[in-house]
Specification:
Strand content: 15-25%
Low-confidence stretches: none
Mean pLDDT: 97
Shape: globular
Structural class: alpha/beta
Length: about 150
C-alpha cells in the first residue's frame, strides 16, 4: 500500500475540482490510498506519513496561495531531513499563466529535497474535462510510480 497526500487551497472551487480529479486518478491504482487535505488543515504528520505528495494551488497575484505557503512554512524545518526525494507533483488553477506559482513551489521543493516526478498541470481559465483528465493522469502516475517503487 502507498499513501498519496493531496494538499490544496481553493476559494472559487476550481483548484478543489482539480484536487478531486487527482484523487480519483490516484485511487484508480490498486494498492493506493489518498489523504486529501485543505492546505490549512494538513500537518507535518500528514506529510511524513505520505509516500507521495500532490500540491494544488490557485495562482494569486502570480504566486501560490497563502494557505499553501503556510503549509510549507509550518512543515519545512521539522520535515527537512525526513522527506529526502519524496516524490511530488503540482497542479495550478491560473487566471494568468501559472508560471510564478509553479516557480515558487519548485524553489520550496528544492529546499525540502522533494523529487518532481511529472509535468505540472496548469489550468489557464476554465476547468475543462481535458484539464480534469490530465489531473487524473497526474494522480495515477504518482500513485503508480510510488507503488512500483520507481520514485
Amino acid at each position: 500500500m502507498v499513501k498519496i497526500l493531496i494538499i490544496y487551497h481553493s476559494q472559487t472551487g476550481h483548484t478543489e475540482k482539480m484536487a478531486q480529479a487527482v484523487a480519483e486518478g490516484a485511487k484508480s491504482i490498486e494498492g493506493a490510498t489518498v489523504a486529501m487535505k485543505k492546505a490549512g488543515e494538513a500537518t507535518l504528520d500528514d506529510l511524513l506519513a505520505a509516500d507521495g505528495l500532490a500540491v494544488g494551488t490557485p495562482e494569486n497575484f502570480g504566486y501560490m496561495s497563502g494557505m499553501v505557503k503556510d503549509f510549507f512554512d509550518r512543515t519545512f524545518y521539522a520535515a527537512q531531513d525526513k522527506v529526502f526525494r519524496k516524490p511530488y507533483v503540482v497542479f495550478i488553477s491560473a487566471g494568468n499563466d501559472g508560471a510564478g506559482a509553479l516557480r515558487a513551489i519548485e524553489r520550496i521543493a528544492l529546499g525540502y529535497k522533494f523529487k518532481n516526478v511529472y509535468a505540472p498541470v496548469i489550468a489557464k481559465g476554465a476547468i475543462t474535462e481535458e484539464i480534469l483528465e490530465r489531473c487524473r493522469e497526474l494522480g495515477g502516475t504518482i500513485a503508480g510510480g510510488c507503488l512500483m517503487g520507481i520514485y
